[in-house]
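Supplementary Methods, section 5.1.

A reviewer requested that the exact input to the structure prediction be made available. We therefore reproduce it here, unchanged from the version used in the analyses.
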Amino acid sequence: MTVTNTFETRSDADQSFAETVPAARRLPLSTKIQSRHLDRLAVVYVRQSSLQQVIDHRESRERQYALSEHAQGLGWSSDRILVVDEDQGQSGKTADRRIGFQRILTEVTMDHVGIVLSLEMSRLARSSKDWHHLLEVCALFGALLGDQDGIYDPNDSNDRLLLGLKGTMSEVELFTMRNRLDRGRMFKAERGELFNHVPFGYVKLPNGDVVMETDEQARAVVQLLFDKFDELGTIHGLFRYLIQHGIRLGFRQRTGPQRGQLVWHKPSIAQLLQTFRHPMYAGAYVYGRRMVDQKYRAVHGGRTGQRWRPMSEWRVLIRDRLPAYITWDHFLANNDRIRNNRPGIDSPGVIRPGSALLAGILYCGICGHRLQAQYHRANSPYYVCADEYRAGSSNVCCGMTASAIDELVSRQVLLALQPASIDLSLQAAQGVRTERERLQKHWQRQLERARIEATRAERQYQAVEPENRLVARTLEKNWEDALKRLRNLEEEHDRFLNSLPAAPTEAEQQRIERLAVDIPALWHADTTTATDRKEIIRCLIERVVAHIPKDHEFVDVTICWRGGSTSQHQIIRRIVTYELHRDYGSMMERIVALRLAGFDTPSIAKQLDAEGFRPSKRANGFSVSIVRQLLLRSGIGDDRNHPDALGPDEWWTADLARKLEMDRKKLRYWIGEGWLHSRKTLVQGLRVLWADADEIRRLCQLRDISAPGKKNYPKELTTPKRKG
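The structure derived from this sequence is encoded token-by-token as follows.
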């Protein structure tokens, strides 16, 4: 009979085989199938989008596998039919994770495939990119495509148009289904009723409502997390506290045979961070906190690329929708504190070890960058502006030692804390008792749970028939295990009680209260660490701005207190050279005037201290060596060049040694023995000797009879002449 150009005349054998195949499985025989196609493989592609469809939609799966029978009806032998079903449970929206689809492309490019069969073209791909890639590869290597509607040749223009339309419809169908599901999900989320999973501390009831955890201990642990974070201030500090005291978090099992049961796990830093970021603990329902970065996902593949949205971009936020452990303001404060624990432009970072009290909150008043604390020597921190070094700029800001500005801020903080001394005295002892009671309650709940489990195991063992040993042995073992856990927990509780410090006596409590009233003594106590002082400073001060000039030692300091008020102060920093002194010129003029007036170096040093001048490097005062150095800088510090350096018959030590033709060391020995007159200059302390003509003759005679080791000399030769 005559058919269209798409199908050829069927033979009686083909007709009889087609009648044996159910109508839903038949594909019309096509003239496009040639012998070269039959020599290659017939690939049957089987895919369903999800594992639920694989389990529930069995008819669709059977129809896809039945295509291998139809391939035999088209002329392929059973050994030349390849069934590719590796992509079961994979979506067709992308080919990145579909191993079966990649395998088909590989077989086609190796010229092994004659036809690719699928129930619908949407089974192969729902992405235009992947679909047209497959069309191009099949057209290049002469492979055919077939579905339940017919056989298609990608090199035929009409078939290619039809295949393009089918691919477009598959992609549109995917978007339509996705939009329908997304809009339904969003509609439910806007009512605050869409819950996939709830965090620990909450339970999702069968009717969809969310309530607080019914277990008292699990609720208490969640509340403990927020209370201790308020005290410790950091996630890592809270994590170390939980590990130190053996506190575990209670989770409801989501899958498996123990689904819905409460299990206890050790905490992790990631889990704690997610807890404090989750707004459900503040009673708020939120949907759309994360977004998918499509560019990141396209580059890296898979299901990665999720990014946290800022709060302003959350799709749904309904406050006071759920039972809360903390208030909304408390939730915002916790997140601000976590964010400030990370050092950044606007955050000081977490308090770190070190004696520098203003690390993280001290800023440069010139460039605005944060000053960093460096420790070149132990207990000698130095604040430096390192941002200019990183930028490679030649305009480097000045730094300063930490002692001066730390002392200033400490004094101001102690003044601000004076009105709070009464409150501190009332809270000092209460803090110790509260911590002890909190841990004791946690251990009591653990022991109560262990006793309940042991009692339950005992009742189960007692209820079984004695002769039913198959069950009795198992229940007996469970009972023994429960008793062991109870005994181990009681021993751990005893060790915990022994490790606790003894409760303060009445006298110790009164001492704590007196110490709390005396805030300066508490601040400077050896038991108060630098970390404690930093914590107090950050509670009162938001930032400190220091304007450090390059040309003098006076530093203007602005303290920005929490609440908006500011205070202005001025300190003196340590400087390296005297030229940086703001009053360097007047100081040098005064030193020169005192020297010309006949003052010696000790007298000049005392006079400078009395007149309020300051030496370099924050020394306690001017010393003789400092005055000598400054006189040398002024040009009059060299006593040899002073016009009145030598009086009548006075000699420098070297000159008199040359006159006597003797060694200077022996002459210095005579000076020490008092055998000639000498004095020291006012500035450098140089030795000036007096010797007239008579003294020179005496010294020459003494020189002539002197010998190494000789001690007895005539007295008339060792006694100097009286100065006239």
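Residues 1-28 have pLDDT under 50 and may be disordered. These observations are discussed further in the main text.
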